[in-house]
Amino acid sequence: MGLFAFGGTHVLSDISGIPDDVVADHDLILGAIARGIRTSGATLCGMQVKEFEPAGMTAIYLLSESHVSVHTYPESNALFLDAFTCGETCRPELILDELLAALGRCDHRTSTVHRGTARPRHAIRPVEAPVLAAAR
Fold this sequence. Notes:
Elements: E1 7-16, H1 20-23, H2 26-40, E2 44-51, E3 57-63, E4 66-73, E5 78-86, H3 93-103, E6 107-116, H4 130-135
């Protein structure tokens, strides 16, 4: 296997019950995610933010290791966070932790998906039982 494994960790979170003033504070949300990216061990390459009228935003963070996206829904006091990092050196769950700490009291439903090819810890080979071999 090469330097990088074909695999990664994908954290997907639906966050709701965010106070009006907090979900509307784009700087607070963007800053928390940027801190989380640093804490996770990921490398930020770039970022694009689109603010919507009358409210809401989408932000995409390009990482050397993959990406983070956030989509806010102020009318629902909610947002979606998607953080995916390839390899084994980053911890994308720390991005979520940093965001949740900044948001304060809220509810969240989170899934973590391990993607790609798992690295085998050892080779497993089937062993024929003597009874099966004798039956042939």
